[in-house]
Amino acid sequence: MSSTSTASVPGSGPAAIRCRIGARGVSRSFGPVRANVDVTLSVRPGTVHAVVGENGAGKSTLMRILYGLDQPDSGHVVIDDEEIALTSPRAAIARRIGLVQQELAIIPELSLLENLVLGEEPVRFGRIDWATALRRAEELSASVGVDIDWKAGAALTSIAIQQQVEILRLVYRGADVLILDEPTAVLAPAQAEELLRLLSSLRDAGRTVIFISHKLDEVVGVADHITVLRSGRTITEIARGEIDREGLAALIVGDSEVAERSVSRGDPGETVLVVEGVSAKDDRAVLRLDDVSFEVRSGEILGVAAVAGNGQEELAEVLIGIRGAASGDIRLDGASIGRASIRKRRLAGLGYVSADRKHEGLALGLSLADNSIATPALHGLARGGWLGPRRVAERVKEVLDRAAVRYGSSSDPASSLSGGNQQRVVLGRETIGNPRVLVASQPTRGVDVRGIGYIHELLRRARDEGAAIVLFSEELDELRELSDRIVVLHRGQVAGMLPGEASRSEIGALMLGNHSPEDDNPDADVPDDPTPGHPRSPRGGETV
Amino acid sequence: MIDAIIASALTLSVPLVLAALGGAIHRRAGVVNIGLEAHMLTGALFGAVVSGATGNWALGALAGLFAGAVTGGLMSLLITRLKGNEIIVGLGFNIVVFGVIGYVLRAGFGVSGTLQIEGLERLPRLDIPGVADVPVLGALISGKDPLFWLCIVLVPVLAWLLKNSRWGVRLRATGASETASSSLGLRTLDIRDGAGIIAGALAALGGVALSLGTVGLFNENMTAGRGYVALAAFYFGRSRPLPTALACVLFGFFDALQIRLQTVGGFSADIISTLPYIAVVVVLALTGIREYSRSARKLS
After folding, report:
1. Structural domain span for residue B227
2. What's the angle, vertex CA A451, arms to CA A446 and CA A453, rounded to 5?
3. Most A CBs within 10 Å: which of B28, B157, B177, as the mutation test of the A interface?
4. What is the reported pTM?
5. Domains of chain A by range and CATH?
6. pLDDT tens, residue by residue, A105-125
7. CATH number, domain at B144?
8. Residue A198's closest CA among A188, A187, A212, A209?
9. ipTM, 2 decimals?
C-alpha cells in the first residue's frame, strides 16, 4: 500500500485532525460473499476523495458502513481520528456526516424550496418564514456557484437539479462530510461536469467529500485522493497527479483479470428469429425504435449494445410482446408473431428474462416451486386441468438443479433468495423447455461477480442447446464475451452490426452514432444519455 | 323555487364538506380514509345524545367531534402501528360501528333504527337582518347554522395551513413519499395519526350536522353513504380544500334537486332518489377522463 504523506491539508478542519472519516480494518460478509475484507480508508478533512473499483468490489458496502446503515463484522469506523461504533444513520448525522444515495430522497410533489427546508423549516409567528427560507437557499446555491430556481416544483426539474438540491439539503442541515454513491451515473456529461464543480466548491468551502465513480476521467480530474478497492480489499491509495486513467484502470481490474476472461463462441445454425422494420413508441408516445431489422440464428447469441435510452428497452419489450410495435413484423421460425399475445409467443417457444427481476421476472411472494413452473410453456404438467404434485415436484427440481440454485426448500418464497440466485431461477425456468428464442435483458444487473459467472454459463448452455439468444446488457465487456455478433442501436436505429470480437472503441463509436472509431483508446468513454433529463439507467456509461 | 333549491343544496352540502375536508387532509398525509361513514355515524349519535342530555347544541357538537376524534385515532393506529390495510380497516370500521350503534340503540335506548330524543337542541339558524329577504343572496348566506360557517372558514384556513405551516408541509411530504420523509427525520407515523384524528373529528362534525341540523333525531341509516360520497368529493377535488368543497356543493345540489323532483311527481321516487349517486358516478368518470387527458398532455 502506498500512502501519500501530504504535509498541508487544504480547507479549514481542526488542525490536529488527520482523518476526518475513514475505516480501519473493516470486514463485512453477506453469507458467502465477502464484501469488505480488512478495508482501510482515510479521508483528510477538506478534501475530495474518490473510491473506485469494479462492480462488486465493495464500494457501496463501505459507504453504507461509513453512514451507519450497516455495521462491520470486524474493524472500526474512524471519525476525527477516533475509532467509534457507528450504530445508525442518526449517529452519523450527529457527527455531521451526510449520504446522497442513488435513490434520491427528493419529494416530487413539493417545490425545491420545500424540499430543502423540510424537517428544519424556519418559522416566524407559527408560519413558515418563506422569505428567510428562500434567502438561505439562495445563499447556499450562490456559495457553491449553482443556479437553482427554488420555487419550481421538484417533479418538473431535471434529475441533475434534484441531486444538487439533495446535496445542498445535507449542507443546510449542517453536514460537513458528504458521501455520494455514484452521483454522476445518472447524469448527462454536461450535468456531471457541473456536479463535479459543485463538489470542488464544497471542498473549497472546507467540507469533506467522498464519492464513488466508474468514470475514471472525472476521478482523475477532481479527486485529491483516490482509494482503489478490488474484490473487497483496499489495493492502494493514490494522490492527485500520481496516476493517469489508464494506470487507474489497470489497478482497478488487476493484472490477471483480462487474461481470465473466457470467450467461447457459438455454432450458429438456421435463422430462427427475424425482426423486420420494427418501429415502436415509448409510454410518452416518443418514437424509440425506428425501422429496426436483424436476424438471429439457432445457437447464436446476438448482443444488443446501446447507450441508455436509445431504444434497447423498447426492443426487448416489443420482442416479448409487452409493448406493441407501431409497424414492422417479427417472425419466429417463419411464422409471424408481431401481433401475437405474450402467451402465444411463449407457446411458440419464446423465453424472456426481464430486466426487472423483482417485478416481471418473479413473483417474490410466491414459492420457488410456483415460480419455477410459472410459464405457459410448462403447462404440459397439467392433465385435464389438474397439476399432479409429483410431476410438479420433479419439474421444479429439474429447473432449480439446472440453474444450480442454492435454496433451502422449494416452498420458500422467492424473496428469500439472493439477487443472483433469484436470477438463476428465472433463467432455469426460461431455458428448460429448450426455447427457440431467449430474450435476456440485463440478466446480470445487480448480481455479484460469482453469480455473473453462473448466469453466463446458463446462457451459453441454452445457446449450445440451440436457442437463438438476444442479449441486452449495459456491460460492453459482457457483450463482447458472450456475443457472436453485436448489433448497436443509436437513437432507435441500427447503427451497425459487429462481430463479437469487436473492440470497445468500435462498439462505443457506433453507440455514439459515429461510423468510424475516433481514436484507438481501448477504454473509450461512453458518454451518457443523449436525451438529457431522461436517464434510464443508474449504471449507464461504465468505463471499466 | 331557485332560492329554495340553493338554500337546500347548501344545507345538504355541509355534512359532505366537513367529512370530505377531513378525508382530504388524511389523503394528503397518504391514507385513503374509507371509514368516514363510521366517523359520521358516531358523531351523529353522540351529538344527538349529548345535545338531548344537556339541552345545548354546542356541547352536543363538541361531544360528536370528540367521539369522532377517538374513532379516527383508533382507526389510524390500526393502520400506522399495526400495519393494517387502510381499505380493509376502513371498511371494517364502517361495519363494526354500524353494528355497535344498532346494538346500543336496542340495548341502551330500547328502540330500533330511529332515536328520538326529548329536549334535544338543534343547531341554531343565524338569520342576517336585511339580507334574508334579498333574492339568491339571502338563500346563499342567511338562515345558515354554525357548521355552515365553520365550513366557510375551514376551506381557506386549511388551504393556508397546508401551504404555510410546518404541519402542512410535513403532512404533504409524508403523503407524497413516506420513505423520503422518514429518511429526513420526520415522524411520519405521528403525522399520519394526527391526520387520522382530524379526519375522524371533521367527519363526525359532518354527522352532527345531520342529526342536529334539519331533523333533530338520530337514525342508524342517516348517513346514507355520505361518507363514500365525501370520498368521491376529495378524489374529484384532488384533496385540495376549495375544489373538494365545491364538489360537495355539486353533490348537495343534486340531492336538493332530487328532493324537489320527488314533490313534483311524475317520476318514480325510487329512481329520482338515485340522482345524487348517479351524479357521483358521472363526476368520477369525468375525473378519470380529466386525469387521462392531463397525463396525455403532460407527455406530449
Report:
1. 2-299
2. 120
3. B177
4. 0.73
5. 21-249 (3.40.50.300), 271-511 (3.40.50.300)
6. 899 899 999 999 998 899 998
7. 1.10.3470
8. A209
9. 0.85
